[in-house]
Amino acid sequence: xxxxxxxxxxxxxxxxxxxxxxxxxxxxxxxxxxxxxxxxxxxxxxxxxxxxxxxxxxxxxxxxxxxxxxxxxxxxxxxxxxxxxxxxxxxxxxxxxxxxxxxxxxxxxxxxxxxxxxxxxxxxxxxxxxxxxxxxxxxxxxxxxxxxxxxxxxxxxxxxxxxxxxxxxxxxxxxxxxxxxxxxxxxxxxxxxxxxxxxxxxxxxxxxxxxxxxxxxxxxxxxxxxxxxxxxxxxxxxxxxxxxxxxxxxxxxxxxxxxxxxxxxxxxxxxxxxxxxxxxxxxxxxxxxxxxxxxxxxxxxxxxxxxxxxxxxxxxxxxxxxxxxxxxxxxxxxxxxxxxxxxxxxxxxxxxxxxxxxxxxxxxxxxxxxxxxxxxxxxxxxxxxxxxxxxxxxxxxxxxxxxxxxxxxxxxxxxxxxxxxxxxxxxxxxxxxxxxxxxxxxxxxxxxxxxxxxxxxxxxxxxxxxxxxxxxxxxxxxxxxxxxxxxxxxxxxxxxxxxxxxxxxxxxxxxxxxxxxxxxxxxxxxxxxxxxxxxxxxxxxxxxxxxxxxxxxxxx
Length: 556
Ligand code: HEM
Known about the structure:
- The protein is α+β, with helices and mostly antiparallel strands.
- It has 22 helices and twelve strands.
- It has a domain at about 1-85 and about 405-450 and about 460-485.
- The longest helix has about 35 residues, at about 250-290.
- Protoporphyrin IX containing FE binds next to helix 16 and helix 22.
């Protein structure tokens, strides 16, 4: 049996190598980086220490680059061209699908076919129910809930500082992680993880699961192409029986991946069951009388689903998968971004003071002890510019992945020069099956788009300007937020963008009104997992962002 299996494997590998040898890439004429291993571009693209590889893409190779495949695989494209991005994300979004790697991965993590795992009409139908829970009006009503959480954050941080010698470094990532998880738990689920209680078992377990599942998955990237077939495997009893064997695999990554995705699911089930029970007992009124006055995203989604036409209603497993997508989408991205903001401010005391002055003036103008509301926070020009510039330069999601399901020609704003003939091409045929990587961080740093100072942190570039006016030549990118790619664009753009911006502004303003920040002695390495994750340089024991924090003599 074993010799037969070995012979079959060898024959398959030889056939694949032969096919690869005969393969003529449709992208031979496009410049691109040489792969650093036999695995082709894959190891470079996913290298946790490879952020520089992404950042240099447009300057070295232009706005479309060829990524050479492995000895067994075919080539891919890395796209940052504004016109091509518009075609891929908006015009032809049904042709450039979320990759099966991602839909398989998120289908398993979210235990069902939520937004991140569906395409076409099903995706449109689900977005119709999810988008209304994120309108500016709905987000503005979450402000009191947000302040409840930031008050706990402030008290916990003040207590930690009081218990330590003055000037000792603290891990601000721990603070932003607890804050963003508690914010999305309360505002998203109407639930608490008691995240500021160091002994909270629920916080520890959920936090471990939500922060580990994607970094672990990126260690399994060679297996990602098979996850979609795995989760759709029939008969279901066979898949379930095989899944029971995972804990016995002598490799920790699949075991931990399974454990993490199994930890989060029961919490979402309980939250949904609680809402249903309340609804059965007292209808919508009972939900509206709950602790969040019915303003949490889960109640809104429940309502939106209840009011939908029968054909549009989502079954419970899809509601749960979407709930899980929302919580996941909100957690890692926002906590990492918040710690990035604070470490930037810690290195720039003058910017910190200017932001504090802007806040002080706004509070004085308001003339009461009430905190700034949604609109008042949005009307602070320096805070807004710092927010945009940080999210441009330090894009939390570096790239996304699409798969082409039919041959399509896309236009190019920046022509490609043929490496053989030097001929200029103003459009590009992308053939069926090509993996297409959309370099969001690279597009946000392109010197052709943003000018020669594209890689400099310069909040002033946004003063008095909207979206494309801050680029070098009024270039329009198809991004949802301020003409940049941070939250993507088109029908699959991030629905939680307003939630994220409001959270970032509100948390930062709360911290700046009570504390000052100073740079710590160590440098931070931002590692590329699916979102950017901060580590102290030379210390791989876990994500951290040490800074020195001091209470303000007079907080306001
Ligand atoms: C700085 C913070 C955030 C960033 C940079 C960010 C970025 C993104 C990006 C790039 C995508 C597209 C992924 C893809 O197509 O492969 C996305 C999707 C998504 N985000 Fe966010 N996000 C952030 C915060 C949030 C928040 C706060 C929420 C919810 C409260 C959220 C919920 C979602 C959901 C549900 C999706 C899936 C949308 C779909 O497939 O239709 N995100 N996000």
